[in-house]
Every structure is written in structure tokens, then in C-alpha cells.
Inverse folding.
């Protein structure tokens, strides 16, 4: 399964759970955010990790500290250019393909801004 298919599945999953998708594949000089969604008081920056059954390891393991920093910097750039005043949240959505079926694991608050201000 490619990343684009994983992102489509993740976006549909989120929409079915009441999220409003406000952006996809947002780019800045720091990196990319797969999905930007809104729900309640949150603006949610979503990293999607898609895997097929023959790939070792969990998809979320690919979102290491380095990747988190890139996502956070990109999100802060987005927020600085946006008029939206919602609370940011960082989620990871795993899309795992098993044969012809897909399983989705949504990890809310997978990481946050605490401790990152000094890292930049």
C-alpha cells in the first residue's frame, strides 16, 4: 500500500468520526503534514503511517523524535499563517493492510509540544 492510499483511508476514518478535514499534504520548509483536521477545540495535525502485512514493525515506530520535531515545526508555521485559534494536537494514524482488508489505529495525542521549545 502506498502513502497516498493510506492517507485517503485515514481521512475517511477521521471524517466518519466527526473530524473536519481542512488540509492535506501541507508543506513548509521544515517538512510536511499529511492531514490537518479540526474537531471541537482542537486543530489536529495527523501523521499517517501505512504498512502492508509483510512490513516488520509498527507504523507508529516510524514517527521518531526527529520526525516529531519536523511535524511540530511545520505545524507552528501553519498556525503562524492561519487565523485559527484552536489548541494544537498531534495524532498518528496507522493504516495496516492485511490481505485485502485494512485496520486503522488512531493514536490521539501521540506527542505534544512539551519540551520542544528548547529543541528548536
Amino acid at each position: 500500500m502506498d502513502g497516498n492510499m493510506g492517507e485517503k483511508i485515514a481521512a475517511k476514518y477521521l471524517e466518519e468520526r466527526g473530524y473536519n478535514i481542512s488540509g492535506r499534504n501541507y508543506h513548509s520548509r521544515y517538512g510536511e503534514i499529511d492531514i490537518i483536521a479540526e474537531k471541537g477545540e482542537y486543530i489536529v495535525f495527523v501523521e499517517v503511517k501505512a504498512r502492508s502485512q509483510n512490513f516488520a514493525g509498527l507504523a507508529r515506530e516510524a514517527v521518531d523524535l526527529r520526525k516529531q520535531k519536523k511535524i511540530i515545526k511545520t505545524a507552528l508555521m501553519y498556525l503562524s499563517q492561519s487565523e485559527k485559534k484552536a489548541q494544537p494536537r498531534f495524532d498518528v494514524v496507522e493504516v495496516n493492510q492485511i490481505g485485502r482488508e485494512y485496520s486503522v489505529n488512531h493514536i490521539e495525542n501521540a506527542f505534544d509540544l512539551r519540551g520542544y521549545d528548547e529543541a528548536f
Remarks:
- Residues 65-81 form the longest helix (17 residues).
- The first strand starts at residue 20 and ends at 27.
- The radius of gyration is 14 Å.
- The CA atoms of residues 12 and 21 lie 9 Å apart.
